[in-house]
Amino acid sequence: MSIPINNSFDKKRIGIEIGKGSYGSVYSMDDKTLVFKHYNKTGASQICLPFDFIKEASAYLTLKMTDNKEIIINKKFVGLTMFKYAMDLNRAIKSNYVKEDNITSILHGIVTTLANAQEKFLLHRDLKPGNIVLTISEENNIDMSVIDWGISSFSYSKHIQHKFNYVQTAWYRAPEQILKYSYNNPTIDMWSVGIIAIELINNKVGFFNGTSGKEQIQKYFNTLPISDGVDFKNAFHIYEKNHGINLSVGKNIKFVDCSDKLYNFIKKCISMDPLNRLDPISALEDPLFSDYVKPYICSDMKNRIDGIASINIDYSAVLENTIYMSIRSKLINSCILVLHKLKWSVHELSRVVRLLDKCMEKKSSDYMSSPHSSSESLSTSKKEIEYIYYYISVIITMFYNNMMCLYEFEPEQILQMLHVNIPPTNVFYEIWTNVFVAINNNINFKTFLMYDYLINVDPIDGEIYSQICVDLISDIEHLKYDDYTLFTYTIFKLSQKNVEVKCIKDVVFDFSIVKEILM
């Protein structure tokens, strides 16, 4: 599935503003079945594509959802055209549109979307009634969608170390977010599902409407049953001490009036300890949904990784870019220095270099779409080298700001780290667009290192593992092989160094597939 990019968007297609948020605005369109979601440009210099736009477009492509019809990128407009629904769930609850027999159907639709996302290593992280849109027909049939994936997270490695930043809207925020003891667990979205279910039953938006993190967590503790868990217990005792409060534990009471099946489902969603909470995939097996057709969700880890999009690079075309090839090793070393300052790992290096290789498979005349330079006296080859560094700065900025969910870096700052002159802003904007097109509008792509979900390496041997991966990334020949073959090669190299690799259940590496690399 691909969504067409339109660089020439006619302003006459847009009608009146019908919604507004931190991301920008939603407008009606001349086609009454569509709306246009316009994103505010982000960053101090206003030359970066909005990270929430990049995340949302990528999520729709990753999940193969059909809500988006078109991606718009030009100097005036950055946004998505989307199907129009009658209302969001927030309005539906407040207006009593949701009948009791609709609740399970709505919850099943939400959980199915989240399970599909979990299968693709994707978390929504801002689930709330305002981000669920639906149309209820006269026959009481529901057409619905989960929208606003602007702070979603793609877990391309189980070793990602995120700088802590709050996600989720406060009323639907999981306890681990407030207590700061767990990151990026798929159960984070299921907490929000449980709160939404309580609101649906009670016909009340803001059932837990704390005005601060302290008040929010107190409302949870005063009402909901508390589960066991060492990490969780330690976290809330620390929170009590730091905030000078006493978190009294709620009784295991029936806090909602509903069927036993629905009540038990909600209890599994709102376990305070995320390790004891339902995840989306297991939630589909809950007795509450026994009457629904179960969607196919892949459980095999390798097959799940195989299903993630990858970047196909024309190896011979990269070799023909002689300017790039002459400095590629130096560029990779520069990337390593920058990523070290950002406290990134070899996983991020793999993604940055993979995307840079993809952008450089074109001739310089193609990726230098505007022959601007900070110094007009530079030779053509030096201008080309400058452009390559501009691409590096944009690629690193895009990955960093998307991972952190905030704009902490501009491309100019990366160039300063690399001691490269800063170009005119219009050059940056062209490069942002070119990079986004190079990844087929989807930042949620894999490299060979994503397969390390299949193994466990002792931390003591982590440096050996990382160096093998860096050597492989640096070797241009690696572009000739598929990701799984490359990862099998890393396991082979580890075995040669007597490093023990523990594989997850049913995973066996066949070293015969790496014979060509070894020759």
Q: How is the topology of this model organized?
A:
Elements: E1 5-6, E2 14-21, E3 24-29, E4 34-39, H1 51-62, E5 68-73, E6 78-83, E7 87-88, H2 89-94, H3 103-119, E8 122-123, E9 132-136, E10 142-146, E11 153-154, H4 175-179, H5 187-202, H6 213-223, H7 230-243, H8 260-269, H9 280-283, H10 301-306, H11 315-320, H12 322-341, H13 346-359, H14 364-367, H15 380-404, H16 411-418, H17 425-438, E12 455-457, H18 462-474, H19 483-496, E13 501-503, H20 515-518
Parallel strand pairs: 1-5
Antiparallel strand pairs: 2-3, 3-4, 4-6, 5-6, 7-9, 8-11, 9-10, 12-13
Helix pairs in contact: 3-5, 5-8, 12-13, 12-15, 13-15, 13-18, 15-16, 15-17, 18-19
CA-based gyration radius? 25 Å
Mean pLDDT: 85
CATH architecture annotation name of the largest domain: Orthogonal Bundle
- Work out the strand percent: 5-15%
The total domain count is 4
Q: Please describe the biggest sheet, giving its number of strands, its sense, and whether it closes into a barrel.
A: 6 strands, mixed
Provide the helix percentage: 40-55%
Briefly note the structural class of the backbone.
Answer: alpha+beta
Given as residue ranges, the uncertain stretches (5+ residues, pLDDT < 50) are 371-375
CATH homolog superfamily of the largest domain = Transferase(Phosphotransferase) domain 1
CATH first level of the largest domain: which class?
Answer: Mainly Alpha
Strand line-up in the sheet with most strands: 1-5-6-4-3-2
What general outline do the C-alpha atoms trace?
globular
| Total DSSP E strands | 13
Give the end-to-end Cα distance, rounded to a whole number of Å: 37 Å
Q: Briefly note the CATH topology name of the largest domain.
A: Transferase(Phosphotransferase), domain 1
Helix count? 20
